[in-house]
Design goal:
This protein has a single domain, classed as Jelly Rolls, CATH 2.60.120. The protein contains no helices and 10 strands. It has strands at residues 2-3, 7-9, 14-21, 25-28, 32-41, 48-52, 61-66, 72-82, 87-91, 95-104. A hairpin with an 8-residue loop joins strand 6 and strand 7 (61-66). The protein is globular. It starts with a strand and ends with a strand.
């Protein structure tokens, strides 16, 4: 996982962090807004990733993203996707990397 710099969303005045993942992982242990998801896949088929509202794949599904075969696809979420309990990323078939821009909410 790579940690990134903050990105300012001037349209919504949000300050996002970004992290890059190469496998399933806990993204945030607290509620957050998700602003952008970038999915990269291999040449074997369409990459699939799933985001969950919580800390594992046993929590409620928020959204499933399908990338493009052998390439990269960006999803800009306006308004941002809001989680209530945290954020978990599950890699499915053919996904090789995912970059997520998110902002943790104050508790």
């Amino acid at each position: 996982m790579e940690k990134g710099k903050k990105v300012l969303d001037t349209a919504r005045l949000r300050s996002y962090n970004w992290d890059r993942f190469t496998s399933s992982n806990k993204v945030s242990l607290s509620p957050c807004f998700v602003g952008t998801v970038i999915v990269t896949g291999d040449a074997q088929g369409v990459p699939v990733i799933t985001l969950y509202d919580g800390e594992s794949a046993n929590d409620p599904v928020l959204f499933q993203f399908n990338g493009i075969n052998g390439g990269t696809k960006q999803f800009h979420l306006q308004p941002p996707l809001k989680t209530e309990r945290g954020l978990y990323l599950l890699f499915g078939d053919n996904a090789t990397a995912v970059l997520i821009e998110y902002e943790r909410l104050q508790e």
